[in-house]
Amino acid sequence: MSAWAWIRLALVAALLGSGGAGAAPLRLLPPDPVYARAAGCPAVRVDLPAATHALPGGVKLSPRPTDIPVGQGDSAICYAYATADMISQRVGVAVSPLDVATKFYFADPARLAAIPDPALQAHLRAHPGYLADIAWARNAAEVSRDRNPRAEPYFDKLEGGEEDASALLYNIDGLCEERDLPSHEGYAHFTARFAALRFSSEVRAPRQCLRAVGATVAQLRSRRADAFNAGWLALVKQRCRRRPLPVPLLPVSYRVASNQLDFMERVEAGRAPHPRQVTRMLAMVDYALDRGRAPTIGYSWYELQERDPKDPDLAADHSSTVIARRREGGQCRYLVQDNTGEYCSRMRAGVRERCEDGRVWLLESELRRTLYSVIYLR
After folding, report:
1. Contact between residue 137 and residue 162 where contact means Cβ atoms under 8 Å apart
2. CA 185, CA 70: separation in Å to the nearest integer?
3. Is residue 107 a contact partner of residue 169, using CB atoms and an 8 Å limit?
4. Sheet strands (E) in 312-358
5. Please, which residues have CB within 8 angstroms of residue 145's CB and are 6 or more apart in sequence?
6. What's the number of CA atoms in the CB half-sphere (13 Å) around residue 210?
7. Angle at 301 (CA atoms; ends 308, 135), nearest 5 degrees
8. For 221, what's the count of Cα atoms within 13 Å in the CB-facing half-sphere?
9. pLDDT tens for residues 57-72?
10. Could you please report the per-residue DSSP string of 155-212?
């Protein structure tokens, strides 16, 4: 038996032996179940692995970083933080959101077909368009021009992504823990390294195209960015002590819009999602929670915080992991884990009272207003 096989067996044994509330079951859920709302909205909570993150330099703050979700800081990759939470809960280890984002943008999706896991291969056969879906998701990413007037697709200037594609791509090369590639406060741990990369001679005068980034879409490539991103990939490889996944990551998704802006445009055009579609999404959330999974949802950040009238972002597309459910005040409430790093005091009136250390109880009626997607792992 290979060394990787022995390690994988050890991980499986550890997870199976962990027991107790919040343990990540290794069994796979059926690929196409019948969804129904949880009658009576019984209380349930899915625990995530213990936090390991910290701020650069170990700055002491209240609340302590380890008591709040890993924060995305000034980055615009909330999808990666929500997906990392979803994966972490499934595998029983806190994985790095920056590693999730790195794989989403640059991992070679063709390598998925070579992974010898029968469940993963069955999943790929059932979704023959997965390569096109990943390419679409990558092409939908945007490039920030903040201190980047040429709009070079440097890793730390990329914005947006898809949770289901990210989870599927994370099957490649095993997991990287948050403590190896820290992601708290976005790119704060790597500010100096990014500056060094950006102004290195190789980036300023690139001499060759680099294979490390050759598998991504043209939208995420340029000569300067290729050199920068290859340098980032080398650092990730150096820091990550990769471990094999104890279970394949098989995402199940359903959406009524491609993003929050698309959702809003559909509503304004008189093509709002049918109530049955919204109920289906909530039923999928219930299904996942009741079976020990932490689903991610796509919705509007403005459900949590009032929009600044000067903010040009009308949609505030956001992604969060749902970790609990309970009935209170005559309706279901869902506990969403917010990764923006915002303090509860900044939440809008009526919501801040239901917020504790970055985890917010949202009413079902609030979710119904902007919910457009649900993803969970089988």
Report:
1. yes
2. 7
3. yes
4. 317-328, 331-337, 355-356
5. 151
6. 21
7. 120
8. 12
9. 766 666 777 788 999 9
10. GGGEE---HHHHHHHTTSS-B-BTTTS--TTTTGGGHHHHHHHHTSHHHHS--S--GG
Q: CA end-to-end span of the chain, whole Å?
A: 27
Q: Which amino acid is at 70?
A: V
Number of helical (H) and strand (E) elements in the chain, helices listed first: 12, 10
Contacts of 7 (CB under 8 A, 6+ apart): 243, 244
Query: Considering only 39-48, 158-167, 192-201, which range has the smallest mean pLDDT?
Result: 192-201
> Under a CB-based contact definition with an 8 Å cutoff, are residues 117 and 250 in contact?
no
**Model confidence pLDDT, tens digit, residues 97-150:** 999 999 999 999 999 999 999 999 999 999 999 999 999 999 999 999 999 999
User: What is the Cα–Cα distance from 303 to 287, expressed in whole angstroms?
Assistant: 23
The torsion defined by the Cα of 212, 215, 218 and 220, in degrees rounded to 10, comes to -60
| Residue at token pair 């994988």 | 8
Q: In angstroms, rounded to a whole number, what is the distance separating the alpha carbons of residues 322 and 194?
A: 32
